[in-house]
Amino acid sequence: MANKALKLAIVIIIGLLLTTGCATIGTVKSLLDEPSFQQENLPVRELKLAVATDGSRSRKNIEELIKKTSDLMEKQVGVRLIISHWFDIYWRSKDWDEMTDIFAARVQNCKNEFDVAVGFTNWNMVRSQAFVKKNRYIIIRNFTVHAFAHELGHAFLVGHSRSGLMAPNTGPFSGATDFFTAEDRERVLINKWRNFTKD
Question: 120 in helix, strand or coil?
C-alpha cells in the first residue's frame, strides 16, 4: 500500500514539474531577444489607455502594473501602453455587463481620444477575474500582469488558446504563461493597428 502511494506521489510530482516547466514550450519566450523577432514588432504602437479606478488600488500600483504589462507586450508584439486619461469610478453593480456599461458612459466624452479603457476593482466577482467587452472595455479584479495582458490579447481579437498567455485558466495544468504562442502573437500583429474607436 505504501509503495502504491509513493508511486502515485512520484507520478503527480513529475506531472506538475512537466506541466509547469514546459508551459513556455510553444510560446515565443525563447525568441524575445532575436533581432528578427524584434524587427517583426516594429514599428511600436502606442496604445492609449483610459484608466478608471474605484479607489481599491492606488494610482502608483496601477501605474506599476501598466508599466510591467507594457514591457511584456512591447517585447512580444511591439505594443506600448500609454495612459491618456484617468477617471475615478463608482461601479454601482457587480455585474460585468452593467459595469462595462457604466464604464462606457463614464468615458463617453473622450471615447475618440483613447484606444482601450481599463478599469480596476477588487470586488469579488463570481464569473471571472477579468473581462473585456466590445474588444475595448477591460475590467480587472485579478491585479496581475497576466490577467491584464490576457485581456489585451482579447482586445486585439485573439480568442482563447490551449496554452500560452491566451489559455483561459492559470492553474498548474492549464498551460498558461505570460507569453503568447506563435499563432496568437501572429494574430495580435495582424490586428495591431486596428482602430478601436470604430467599434
Answer: strand
Q: Distance between CA atoms of 166 and 180, rounded to whole angstroms?
A: 7
Domain assignment present for 185 = yes
DSSP lists the bridge partners of residue 93 as none
Cis peptide before 172 (omega within 30 of 0): no
- Counting the structural domains of the chain, the total is 1
Is residue 14 over pLDDT 60? no
122 lies in some domain: yes
**Cβ neighbours, 10 Å, residue 15:** 12
CA–CA separation, 70 vs 86, rounded Å?
17
Q: Is the pLDDT of residue 18 over 60?
A: no
Give the residue numbers spanning the domain of 160.
2-192
- pLDDT one-digit tens code per residue, 26-49: 899 999 999 999 999 999 999 999
How many Å is the maximal CA-CA distance in the chain?
A: 69
Closest CA to 128 of 147, 154, 146: 147
Name the residue with cell 478599469.
119
Read off the CATH number of the domain in which 76 is found.
3.40.390.10
Residue 122 reports pLDDT greater than 90: no
